[in-house]
Every structure is written in structure tokens, then in C-alpha cells.
Amino acid sequence: MIDTLKSRRFLHDFDWLLLAAALLLSAVSVLEIYSATQSQGDNYHLRQAAWVAIGMLLLFISASLDYRTVSEHIPLLYIATVLVLAYTLIFGNTVSGAKSWVSIGPVGFQPSEFAKLVVIVALARYLSELHGRYVTVGQMLKATLIVGIPMSLVVAQPDLGTALTYVPVLGLGLFIRGIRPAVLIAGALIVVLLLPASWLLLRDYQKDRILTFVNPDRDPLGRGYQVRQSRIAVGSGGVMGKGLFNGTQSQLGFLPTRHTDFILSVVGEELGFAGIVVTIGLLMVIIVRSIYHAQTARDALGLFIVMGVVSVFVFHSLVNVGMVIGFVPTTGIPLPFLSYGGSSMLTAFAGIGLIIGVRRRRNVN
Amino acid sequence: MRLYDQQQQLNGRVTVVEYFVLTAFAVLVFGFWHHQVIREGYFAELADRNRFREIKLLAPRGRIYDREGRLLVDNRPSYNIVLIRENSPRTSEETASRLAVGIALPEKEILDRINRHRKEPRYQPIVVKEDVSLADIAFVKSHRYELSEISVEFQPRRRYLGSGTAAHLLGYIGEVTEPQLTTPEFLESKVGDIVGQFGLERQYNSILRGKDGFKRVVVNNYGREVDRLYEAPPLAGNDLFLTIDTDLQKAAEETLGDRAGAVVALDPQTGEILAMVSRPTFDPNLFATRISTAQWSDLINDPKKPLQNRVIQSRYSPGSVFKVVMAAAALESDVVNPLHTLFCNGGAVFYGRTFACWKKGGHGAVGIHDALVDSCNVFFYTVGRDLGIDRIAHWATSIGLGRKTGVDLPNEDPGLIPSPEWKQRVFKTNWYAGETISVSIGQGAVSTTPLQLTWAVGGIASGGRLRTPHLVKPETIQRMGLKPPEIQEEQYPIHQSTVDIIARALWGVVNESGTGTRARVPGFDVAGKTGTAQVVGKQTIAVGEQFQDHAWFIGFAPYRTPQIAVGAFVENGGHGGGTSAPVAKAILEMYYFKKTGRFHPPETIGISRMN
């Protein structure tokens, strides 16, 4: 099941470009985390570097796995994941209001992050085994159920931000598999009509975030504070930035959660528009390259796995990047490869590994 | 083939997704371009506003000394708790609720204070609690991270020594009001500035107030200073040197006690005011920290009006003291001559109406000397009739009544000397001849402030010389290169013989069998005149204290070329001789004792100076 990492084939088919982009982003991440937290002295940058190292390991392992074999065993993995999520919901540790963490010895992790990968493969297997031009309503419901069970366990934590990332996996998967145009339009209409109704289901702080997003001046010092400070940081960075370690917003502490959710604000402030273009460019390299791998995958299963991972990357990136300049409401969604955090980092590297694994097998048979 | 078709379809949709993703990121890159290229300047300024903070360094006001260099008003260090809303991580409401318990101030009051300044720029500190205790400071310092929007600010605070001595003339301070900011008087003041609001504090605000400094610092998000870029130190205000003699002031305050009234002592030769007392009084230290709403409304709603400086802001009928002015007018106008006498049988008829003398049965034959000594009404009724209202008004106004004296205090009342023109103007009716008779003994519409009457009597005793009364030594202000108060000197030609006759008679009031014997100071030739100002008409039978007559005594000493003139006025004090003359005596005695070395003034007043 696992090829030897030393084999020539492995190295030959390996996508060095993807790895290079991920590592460059990680380098920016470690550097800016150091910059953002040097006054705090918790060595976040060293920890992040350690996560990168472990992430690399995960990447090579998942790249060497045969995705078809993984797909065969997916029902078991899926059930195990659901059980872990249920366990988290009952025995997990509460972090910023959500029961989302479990500890194994000294290491704590967020099962909802890794669960994404399992859900991606499970959905990919289901979708790839369907026939016909379009999916039926029944098949859509089944697909929804596959994503919905683990997702609802995450919603219940309640970690709406992480749970939301499951939605594009489902949506994008169904769209690519083929949805009848009429159903697509009807679905869009239902979403539009249900949006106001969903307002009633939101919690107060969530409503607050959305209201503040719509009208940032509503409470510039309360809920709007983070975004306001982030936009000031980014805008004041200008074209070339204030220089590494010289951002006033980040160094003087005006920027909140600057090593996690708002790490891109630090990039924008210290490295300027140039730094932003390079950073987003590297993200685009990963996404465009991955999409190419999806289109050249050996089978539909590979395509759906790659696009599942891509949908997570795209969603995280769009929401996080948009949040930094106030285009999207604030949610605690990390930026892949950049935000500080083990779970997010390991998931991202493992995702890249899955994609490389699909690429490596594109020409077999 | 079928499989290949399906693959093609999937790849086609993947391409759609790819374009969608690329478009979305293009929009985001455009967003960054808009922030970082187009609006860089705007955000750079906001970033600077975050980290640069200008902190006002409040200047101490000038100190105030009495004529012997004794400190009356100085400043003490104090601290305020302030809120800076800019960069506050929470709403003002949340701040208020977190702060309330820690600094022992109701949440509502904190919010009220914040709301009063809501419209000001967010970087402007709002004072939440002033003159705080060490415990309050400790609370703020120990919650520097939890309550980063709250900090402690230094403020030199006014201290009036001698707890309330000379309150009305020193005045008080307060935050400049919005209407005041539009007046030329407070042209240089800004919102939130503490300015003089009353008394000398207000009159000499521009001299006393210093120039606030500031420092520009770099702060972090907790508002903590991490670097200092520039500092302009505050400039302390100029000191004031008064003409007031605290020994006389205290003597006057002690003798007047709790009675409502006014005492003023001045040097008629120079116009220097030596003492000025108004009762009831207030403690100006209340205004040094922000006065509470309850305390303020107590003060302004008190029917006894403790905030009013009765010496210059209240007008009363001068009563018989006015006879001094009448005597001068009559002698100078040759209406009476020193040898002229008339017969008082206890009343006389003028214009068909009987006007009574205060002494039933009358004074018998009286000349001008006896008429002043015994305060004979009938004599002065006759003088008044012969002078006529126009000449009375002319002389009274010339000698300082019915117009502002020009004392260096705000809100002086001009008093009133009635005349036919005045009556026509105000009441649109003609002057009745009978009114002239009432005016002759200081009743009717004539009214004066205690300062005016003292100034006028002192002026007559000094041969018609009137120097603008003042509280601040002009030369001390001139020395600072600032504009001193204007001291004018007026001289009305009064013959020495007239002055002699009046001074001799007023000496008699105190030293013969007159009405003012209780103002006598052995060795010091005190002269004076008592007066009783009717509160209600003679016909009304009233017994309550508030209907008692007001008691006057205006005196001066020595009776030839006087060095001091004293006015004592006790509201509802009854007869001037019994109530007010002893008050005047206490000041005259202190003056005389100091002059002859029988009293050694203390070097400081009240609590001793700090630092």
C-alpha cells in the first residue's frame, strides 16, 4: 500500500512545484509569525516550523498512499471519524466557546480539521461511482447525508466556521458531478429564500458579526474592531510594505489574533501589496496546479478527491483573505499554509499529499 | 467512449470552477490594490493615529497672595481617571460596567459623564472620575491590560487655603461652558479647559491660567507609552498679588459670623480694597474638583444666595447713610450753611403729606452737625426739598453712586440713583415731588451696593477724591508685562470746609452721644454713619426676621485724611448702630492694632503650603 519513498518512480512523479509553493508559503508563515509574536515570546514561529516538518512527513505519507486503496477502506474510516467527532462533542475541551479539541497525552488537536479529508474521500467515492449525466434528487440527498452527518456534529460543538468548510466540498462535488440546470436554479432560489430564515437560527454573536460586516460603523470599537485594525494594517502597508518586523499595527499590538486568523494582515502591512501578490500568487499556483491534476487524473475518483481538497483550500483562502480587507464577515477560518496552528497546517499538507498521490497514479494503465 | 464523455463533462465543469475561483481571487487582489495603492495615505494616517498619542500636560494656574505675601490659593497634585475611546476594545457601556465597582462610582454616572463628551473626537480623553484616591489609581494600574482604554492623568488642582476665607473675591473655577467658548473672554480656551468662573479667578483668568503643554508619544494597543517623540512642558500661570490684608479679612469674617451681610474695607487714598466679606459663603474648594450636581443645585437654589458677592452684586437702600451724601450736596450747593438751623418737632408736611422723623417728639432746633450726629430726618427732608431731585442725583452720581465703581471683579451691580428721567424711562410716569423727600433719607428707589456706599463716604471724607477700588496691585501685573486693571482717579471739588464739617459730625456720631458709638476705637479717631434700610413700608406690621430692617454702618479713620474706610452691612440686622457698628469696629481695631504694632500677623494663613 505504501510505496518506498526512495523509489525512483516516486520521486519522478512527485509534483515538486506543489511542494515548493507550500513550503514557500510556510516560510512566509514562520517569518511573519515570528514578527507578529516576537513581543509575546511564546516561540510560535518555532512551533509552526515544527508543524511544517510534521506536515511534510504527512504529505509524503499521503502521497505514497494509493487513493483507490484508501477509497476501498473509506466506510470504516468514515465511521471511525464520526465516532471521534461524537466523542469530541461529549468529552472534548472547550476552546473559544466550542467543544472542538481533544487531547491525546500532551498533544491537542481538532478532529474536525482531519475529518474534512475523510469526508472528501468518502464523498469522492460516492460521486465517482454514480452514472448518468446528472445526479438524481435521491443521490443528492445521499451525498448530503455523507457530508451532513460529520458536519452536524461540528455545528453542534458549536464551531460554525469549521462546519461551513464542509459545505463547499459538497456543493462543488455535486456541481462537478452534474446537477440538472433546473435543479441548480431551484437550489439557488431555495438558498436565497432560506437565507433570511436562517437568520433566526443564528446565535447573537453570529448575527452581530454579520450586522457589523454589513455596516462596519455600527460598532467600530466592538465587533468591528478587528476588521478595522486589519484594514488599517493592510492599507498602511502600501505598495512595498513597512518592512519585515516593522509593522506598527502588528508590532504595537493593534492587530488582533495576528498570528492566526489575521496573519495575512501582517504580510500586507510589512511586505505591502508586493508581498500580498506573491502570497496570493503562491496560493493560486497551488490551486491552479491542483485543478490541472484533477483534470488529468486517471479516474473520476481521483478528480473528485483533488477537487474536494481544492474546494477546502479555495473556501478557506477566499473567506480568510476576504475577511482581512473586510470583504467577508469575520469567521475563525485560518488561511492554509499561513495561519498559525497545527491542525490547519497538517490538514493542508496532508491535502497536498492526497493531490500528489492522485497525480502520481495518473498514467498507470 | 461513454466513460470518456463523462470525463470530458467533469473536466468542463472543473474548468468552470477554475474560472470562478480565478475571478474571485482577482476581485480580492483588486481589493488589496484598492487598500494598499489607492487609499494608502488614508490608512497610513489611521495607523499613525493609532500609535501616536498627544497627551495634554495641564498647566498649573498662578498662585494668589495677599498684600503681605501670604499664600491664599495654590495648587496641589491630583489624578483623574480618564477614558480614551479610540482603540477601545469594548463599548463605553461595557467599560462603564467593568469600571463601576473598581472605582466606586455608579455605572450610570460613569456613562452620563462619557455621554456628555460623546461628540468629541475619540482620541480626546474623557474624565470619568477626578481627584481620585490611591486605591482608585491602584485599581487602574493593576487592570492595565483588562481595561486598556482607561488610564490615569495628572492634573494640578486648585487649593484654597484657609478653608473658604475670601471665597467671594477669590471666586472659583470650572470647565468652560459651550456658550462661553463663543465669547471673546474665553477666546483662547478649548473644550474641557478649566477656567475661572467667578471672582478674581474669572477676572484675571488670562493672567492666572498657564499654557498647557503636551507630549507626543508612541503607544501600544494598551495605551502604554513605548516611546516619547516630543515634549512641550506646560507653563505655569502668573501669580496674583492682592491688596487684601488677610488679618482684616479674617477679623471681618469672624465678627460677621453666620449673619447674612457684607463687609468691605478699603483705603480711600489709593482705592485698594483691604477686606471684602460676603455672607453666607461657600467653599471654593468644592469647585476645584468637579462639583456634584447635588452640591451645585444646593448652592444655586439656596434662598440666602451664598454664591452672591453681596459687596458688589447686591443693592440695598442706603438709609440714613445717604444723609452724608445729602449733607455734602447741600453744603456745596449753599442750600444750607454751617450756622443754619431748623426746628424738628418729630415730623413735617411736604407736598400735603406728613413725613415723620424717627424720633417721636423731634430733635428741637438742629444744625447740620446735630442733624448728622442725631440723624434727624426732618432736617434732611427740608434739605432734599430745597436741593431738588436733579441736584441730589447729580451729586450722588458724582460721588460714586448709581454707577459701577469699576472694581476688578465681574458682575458688579451699578446700584440706582433715581431721577425724573429714570422714572420716565422705566415707569413712563412723572416724578412725584414726594419721592424726593423719601430719597433725601436714603429710602425710596435709591439703592447702593455696600462697596459703592463705602467708596462714596470714603471719597467725601477724602475731599472728593475717588480712586477706582481694586483687589490686585496693578504694579505687580505691570511688572509681568501684562495689562493691569485700569485705576482711574476722579476729583470732585468739595471745599475743605464742607469736608471738615461732615468729618467732624461723623466723628461725633461715633465719639459723641451719636448712633455709632459702638464703632469707637480708643486712640483711633473713627468717624461714621449708621443707617437702617427699611425692608417693608412703615405701615406694615411685620415681625418675621426677613422683615427686619437692614443695618448699615459706614465708617472711616482717622477722621481727617482717612486711611481706611469700612462698610458693614447686616441683612435684617435691625439698627445700624447696634448691629453693624461693632462689625466695623472689629476691622478698624485690627487695622489700628497692626499699625501700632499691637498685633503681630501670622506668616501664613490656613494650612501651611505644600512643597
Major beta-sheet overview of chain B: 5 strands, mixed
Structural class by sheet pairing and helices of chain A: mainly alpha
**Major sheet details of chain A:** 3 strands, antiparallel
Proportion of helical residues of chain B: 25-40%
Order of strands side by side in the largest beta sheet of chain A? 1-2-3
Largest interface, by Cβ-Cβ below 8 angstroms: which chains and how many residues each? A-B, 48 and 46 residues
Oligomerization category of the chains in this entry: heterodimer
Radius of gyration of chain B: 35 Å
Tell me the total number of β-strands of chain A: 3
Overall description:
Chain A has 16 helices and three strands. The mean pLDDT of chain A is 88. By secondary structure, chain A is mainly alpha-helical. Chain B is α+β, with helices and mostly antiparallel strands and 611 residues long. In chain B, strands 2, 3, 4, 5 and 10 form a five-stranded mixed β-sheet that branches. A five-stranded antiparallel β-sheet of chain B has the order 12-11-21-20-19, sandwiched between helices. Chain B has a three-stranded antiparallel β-sheet with strand order 1-8-9. In chain B, strand 11 and strand 12 form a beta hairpin. Chain B is elongated, with a radius of gyration of 35 Å. The interface between A and B is large, with 48 and 46 residues.
